[in-house]
Structure formats: C-alpha cells, structure tokens
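Lab notebook, design round three. We kept the backbone fixed and only want residue identities now. Task for the bench partner: fill in a sequence for the structure below.
Input structure tokens:
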C-alpha cells in the first residue's frame, strides 16, 4: 500500500450553526457522481429515487485515493471530486464537505476529532446550512404508524391501499389571518397529535411528536393561544418547515411544562433502579458466604485488592454486569447472584496519583475473582480481558493483573465452541511485551491459563501461600502423572529460587504495596527524596582485598532512602538486580555479589542481568552497574549449564541498548566478566569510573601469574621459595593494576572518591538526551526469562 485515501460520507442532512445536523429528503432529480482513476462511489441513489424517513441519512460514500506521499495532494483530489458530484432535488451535506476538505487545516493534516466542533461557525455557511427556507407539504407515503411492517408491505404492494395512500408535495399552506405557524423542524412522520382544533395551549406545551431517523422529536407551542388549524394527521410524512398547526395567540393561558416542573433529584427512576440492583450483586456486602470463605483462608476479596491498588474514587469498571456463559444449565438470576463479572473485575484507575501528574497515573487494573468459580477463565471472562488489553494498547496504559485462579473453565455452555483455542487473550497480552509495563500478582492457586498470563508479565509478585503451575492437580492426574494436592504443585519454595517469582511477599497487602512501588519507577521522577551520608561509601569496601562485604548495603547507601526494590533476590544470586532512585530519578541497578562465587558470573546470574537490562531499556530507565567481578565463572561443572551461551547474552543485549549505562568499579575488574558488566567494554558505557579500591587485569591476578610465569615458578624447587616468588609476582601485578596506576593508561575514565558516586551518576542522567516519544515499541519484546 502507498499514499493516502479519504472517505467522505454524503448524507441527507444539513448542518446548523449550533452543531445540530438535521435530516433532509425528497426526490432525487439529478444524480451524477464523479468517476475516474482513484475515485470510487458506493451508493443506492439514482435519479427519481424518493427518500424515506425510516432509515438513516447516509446516501453515498465517496472514496478518493492518491499515491502521493503528500496528504494535501489527496485532499485536493477529494475536493475536486466533491465539486464534480452533481445532486439535485433536496439539500445534502456536499457543500459542508467541500468546505471542510478545502480548509487549510485539513490539507495540512492538522485536524483533530474536535475540529468540527471547534470550527463549526466557519465551516457552515448560509447556503449549506439548515437556515434556508424549505417547502411545505407532505413527503412520501402515509403509513400505519402502529404497524412495524407497514414499510415492507408497501414495498411489495403494486397499488397502495387506503391506509398507504401515496401523497405528493402540495403548495404552501396559509393559516388563518393573524395566527402563528408551528412548522416541522425536520422531515419526518407524525406519530402523535396531542391537541385538536379549538384547544387552548400555553407556551412550551407539547403539541406533536414526530419520528425521524428512528428518533422521536417533540414539538412545543411557541406561544400561548387557541389551536386555530391543524394541517396534518397521524401517519403523515411531512417535509421540513411544513406548518403542522396554527395558533391564534391569546394572553393569560398558563400551565406547567416538564422543564418548569420542580424535579426531585433524589428520585430513582425504574430503569436506574434496575441497573443499581444488578450492580449490587457484585458488591462484597451482598456476597456474605463467599466473603466468609475468603476470610477463612486469610485472603482479601477481589474488590478489596482493586480498591487498595487504585487511588480512592478513581476506578472505573468495565463489564461488571457480565455473567458466566452458562444459561443452558442455570437461570439468569442464579448467574447474576453467583457469577458477577464472570469471575473477573476489569477497569481503569489511577495509581500513585499524589506522586505524578494525572496523565502518568492511569492504569488498567484486572483481577480474577476466586469467589466466582475458583477464578477460572470463562467465555465472557476472556472477552473482558480482550477488551481491556486492547484499551491498554490503544491508550498506552500499564497493566496490573491479579492472576489467582484455576485456569480454563469447562462448564460454560453458551456458544458453539469446542476447545476455545481461538481466544485472543494470550496473544494480545503477549503482544504488549515491551509496549507497556505489565505487573502480575498472584496469591493462592494460580494454574494453567492464569499462570501463563502471570508468567507473561514483565514482573511477577507472589504471596507466600501461592502455588503456581502450568497444570493443576486435575490436569496432572488426567495426564497419568500421579495424584497431588494443590499445595504440592509449584509452591514458593520452588518458584522463588528458580526465578519464576520476581518479588515474594507475605500477603496481598504487601503484594499491592510492591506493585504500586514497582509501577512508580515506570511513571517517572519524584520530587521528595533524601539520601544517606555518602561518606559511608568510603568505608564500604574492606581494606583487606580478600574480605567479602554486603553489596546490598552499598546499594542502599548509594540510592535515595527507601527507594530500592530488588528483583529475584533468591535466583541468580551472583548478580543483584534492583530498581532505585537517585534524587528522585528512577534507575536500574545491577551489581556483582562477592558473597557468591566471589562475584563471578554464572549462567543464572547472566540470564537475570540480561533480562533486567532489557526491561530497563524497553522503558527508558537508565542503568547503573556496580562492578566487582573476577571474571566469568570457569570449570567443567559450570560448562554443563551452557554458560558460553548464557554469558554471551550480556554482551549481545547490553550492546544494543540506548539508555545510559553508567559503570562504577568498586573492587575487582577482571577480564571478560568486567567487560560484560560494562556494556561490552570500559569505553562502551556512558562512563566507567573506579573507586580507589579498584583492581584490574586481563584475567584474575592469580591465574595470570600461574600462566604467565609458569616456567619461572617451575624452576624453583623449594616450595616455600616458590610460594614467596608467586606472592611477589601477584603483588607486582596488583600494584600495576590498582586503580590509580591503571588510570595512567587511560583504560578507565576516572578514579573517584566513593562519596562522589552520586555526582557522577547525576551528571550522566542530566546529560542523557530525553528519550523520543514513541508510538510503538522500542524493542520487539522483553524476554520472559
């Protein structure tokens, strides 16, 4: 495809300066649509066609295509086609379309959906508006207004019956002298006459009800007086401006209209009362037995969780009146009472409203309701997810999904489906990877389809009593794989250390708090912050270069107070990954953990860090690397974990990001491991600086001495003398590679005071260009692993 196409709808209507488009109609005398290359007209119109008030106003669609990449060229071509469209007999909106398409704003493609509302006065002229005088008389055929099939019977009839008398346009009607005409405001059919000749009426009293384009229009008395003349009767189809009544004006006649009657604003109409009753079935106070069961299991209700996630009064719910698709086996009343929302609450709410502008706080919130059929996935349940995923994609809203539930539901009966494998929920949710942040939460049981959605999320939060599995006990037994209790399938003792769960929490309250804190990093910077005394960092690394320390204490000191949130702390423990803030700005931190393999990179650590880098880069969160790495782990056993491939992910992924990667070497910076931690090399990052405790080498010092001076050491026969020579060589290499000497070769950007680390980070953050506003994804997706 190339170029542009514009569709114009030619409607039987004229615009008014107040924004109301009024229907028109009559007989088409001339109908000559344009033609030519790139021009198509879809229409039912022809010369001699008599319009009907029974249908909508669309007469024709004009579609114009231009292969030019300049939109204004297509707009000019469309304007010419509109001017060539010849239609006579009654007014249509062609002049209005010509004015709109010919406007400079339209040609510049600078119009919005509110352009017509904002510029109506300039788009509507006298000749193309509804203000021009019309003709009086009847239009079309008189039908029985109480017979819904009358128009179809007319179409089959060769000769009209007495109740279907064909009428023709009459001459203008003059009323009695001195009377005031009550004209028809538009073409339509009279369905009710509320007065007769001789009746006294007051100004504003309802006189006539007309039907036009499937809507009823009430005509009121413009003045008070006596009905002097009635010119039409029920069933007449009349043209616009036909005088239906004439009123001999009189003073002193008073009455009360619906508009002037005092309205009881507390009155609940029956239609609203019915809706309120339906909505009541979903509320916790009307589900006492189900709520009591949740309390027995120490769980909150779905609405309590949603209310806790969203700022007070901001949650707008979608699809709350849906019920389970089981009408063939249960009554509608039963389904309304026991399957509200078809087991899922969906909507949009504000999260963290006090910290960020309103436009950055809107979030799609979705939660399975375990109180409805164990949170299983039903027909309407899936359709609600589809709807909300599409809304999230269109509006670019983050998603918080509470996924507790038992997976697919076999008990739905409404529909012709067999397996339901054509549902869209999994495809839609997966396709948004890298487009919007998606946070998954679960508690209790989370099996099958529910678990797939949870696992497809960017970040997974789970309570300590969660069980997560691709298949629950029923599916395991059905596969002949044994009989297990739900508690035995995917408990947290398995799913936390294996990396499925990013954040493990005690209960739903902690899960919600973690989700809101997580979302805040994607929402932007905060203004209220404080940080620990940065001089503490000068003492964070032991003077004994062989002594381990707690890297988490360094991260907590470097970051703003209470801003650190670690992901997957029990998986890939050789590398720490965490979100944090520096002067309110969100950052991602990954750091070597010297308490595991002395900080060497293994397969799980590489996977964990590589995915974290993807997540940060996808949503433009700058990255800080704290390096204390003796290298990539080596040995026959570690190679069984496919380390070559896993470690290489760090090089491939970190070299393809656009966010700043700021590296600070706090102690060891050796070999390929150090390069992997700095985006592929010390000069690949935004900056690579070191604390004075830094030490560097192409490989570990001990290994370098053993390889580089093997012959010299073998030549020394006395073990104690050989050890002394070995330690001397190591000391020499350490002295050569320590931070201040290493910097003389300018292989690193600077040796800094640890207390100045935040200053360097802030300089990097402030120097980075503002990420461009994207319409789509930055990267195709984020690894689930």
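Proposed sequence:
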């Amino acid at each position: 495809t190339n170029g542009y196409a514009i569709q114009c709808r030619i409607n039987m209507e004229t615009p008014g300066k107040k924004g109301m488009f009024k229907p028109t109609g009559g007989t088409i005398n001339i109908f000559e649509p344009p033609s030519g290359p790139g021009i198509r007209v879809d229409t039912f119109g022809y010369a001699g066609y008599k319009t009907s008030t029974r249908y909508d106003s669309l007469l024709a669609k004009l579609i114009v295509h231009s292969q030019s990449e300049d939109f204004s060229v297509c707009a000019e071509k469309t304007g010419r086609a509109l001017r060539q469209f010849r239609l006579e007999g009654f007014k249509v909106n062609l002049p209005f379309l010509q004015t709109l398409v010919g406007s400079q704003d339209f040609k510049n493609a600078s119009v919005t959906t509110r352009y017509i509302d904002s510029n109506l006065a300039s788009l509507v002229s006298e000749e193309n508006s509804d203000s021009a005088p019309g003709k009086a008389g009847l239009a079309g055929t008189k039908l029985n207004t109480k017979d819904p099939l009358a128009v179809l019977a007319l179409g089959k009839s060769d000769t009209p019956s007495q109740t279907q008398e064909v009428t023709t346009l009459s001459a203008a009607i003059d009323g009695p002298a001195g009377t005031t005409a009550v004209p028809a405001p538009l073409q339509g059919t009279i369905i009710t006459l509320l007065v007769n000749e001789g009746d006294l009426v007051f100004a504003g009293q309802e006189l006539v009800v007309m039907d036009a384009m499937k809507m009823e229009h009430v005509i009121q008395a413009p003045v008070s007086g006596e009905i002097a003349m009635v010119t039409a009767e029920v069933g007449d189809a009349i043209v616009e401006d036909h005088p239906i009544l004439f009123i001999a004006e009189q003073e002193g006649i008073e009455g009360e209209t619906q508009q002037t009657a005092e309205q009881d604003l507390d009155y609940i109409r029956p239609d609203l009362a019915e809706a309120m009753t339906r909505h009541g079935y979903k509320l916790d106070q009307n589900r006492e037995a189900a709520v009591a069961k949740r309390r027995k299991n120490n769980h909150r209700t779905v609405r309590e969780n949603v209310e806790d996630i969203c700022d007070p009064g901001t949650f707008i719910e979608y699809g709350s009146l849906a019920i389970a698709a089981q009408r063939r086996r249960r009554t509608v009343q039963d389904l309304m009472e026991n399957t509200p929302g078809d087991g899922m609450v969906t909507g949009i709410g504000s999260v963290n409203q006090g910290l960020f502008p309103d436009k950055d706080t809107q979030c799609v919130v979705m939660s399975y309701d375990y109180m409805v059929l164990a949170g299983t996935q039903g027909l309407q349940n899936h359709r609600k997810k589809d709807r909300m995923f599409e809304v999230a994609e269109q509006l670019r809203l983050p998603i918080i999904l509470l996924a507790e539930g038992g997976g697919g539901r076999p008990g739905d009966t409404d529909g012709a489906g067999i397996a339901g494998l054509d549902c869209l929920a999994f495809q839609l949710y997966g396709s948004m990877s890298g487009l919007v942040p998606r946070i998954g939460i679960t508690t209790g049981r989370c099996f099958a389809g529910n678990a797939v959605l949870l696992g497809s999320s960017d970040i997974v939060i789970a309570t300590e009593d969660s069980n997560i599995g691709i298949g629950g006990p029923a599916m395991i037994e059905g596969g002949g794989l044994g009989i297990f209790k739900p508690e035995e399938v995917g408990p947290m003792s398995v799913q936390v250390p294996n990396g499925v769960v990013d954040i493990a929490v005690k209960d739903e309250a902690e899960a919600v708090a973690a989700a809101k804190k997580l979302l805040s990093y994607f929402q932007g910077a905060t203004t209220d912050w404080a940080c620990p005394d940065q001089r503490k960092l000068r003492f964070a690394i032991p003077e004994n270069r062989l002594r381990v320390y707690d890297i988490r204490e360094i991260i907590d000191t470097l970051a703003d107070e209470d801003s650190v949130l670690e992901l997957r702390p029990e998986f890939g423990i050789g590398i720490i990954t965490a979100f944090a803030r520096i002067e309110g700005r969100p950052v991602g931190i990954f750091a070597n953990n010297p308490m595991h393999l002395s900080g060497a990179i293994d397969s799980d650590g590489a996977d964990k860090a590589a995915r974290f880098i993807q997540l940060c880069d996808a949503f433009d969160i700058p990255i800080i690397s704290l390096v204390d790495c003796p290298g990539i782990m080596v040995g026959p056993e570690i190679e069984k974990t496919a380390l070559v491939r896993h470690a290489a992910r760090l090089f491939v992924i970190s070299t393809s990001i656009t966010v700043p990667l700021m590296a600070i070497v706090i102690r060891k910076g050796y070999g390929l491991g150090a390069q992997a931690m700095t985006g592929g090399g010390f000069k690949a990052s935004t900056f690579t600086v070191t604390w004075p405790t830094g030490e560097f080498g192409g490989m570990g010092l001990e290994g370098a001495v053993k390889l580089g001076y093997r012959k010299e050491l073998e030549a020394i026969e006395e073990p104690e003398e050989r050890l002394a020579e070995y330690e001397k060589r190591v000391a020499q290499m350490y002295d050569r590679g320590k931070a201040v000497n290493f910097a003389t070769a300018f292989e690193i950007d600077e040796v800094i005071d640890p207390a100045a680390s935040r200053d360097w980070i802030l300089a990097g953050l402030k120097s980075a260009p503002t990420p461009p506003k994207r319409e789509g994804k930055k990267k195709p997706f984020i690894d689930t692993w």
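Keep this in mind before ordering anything: The longest strand covers residues 661-670.
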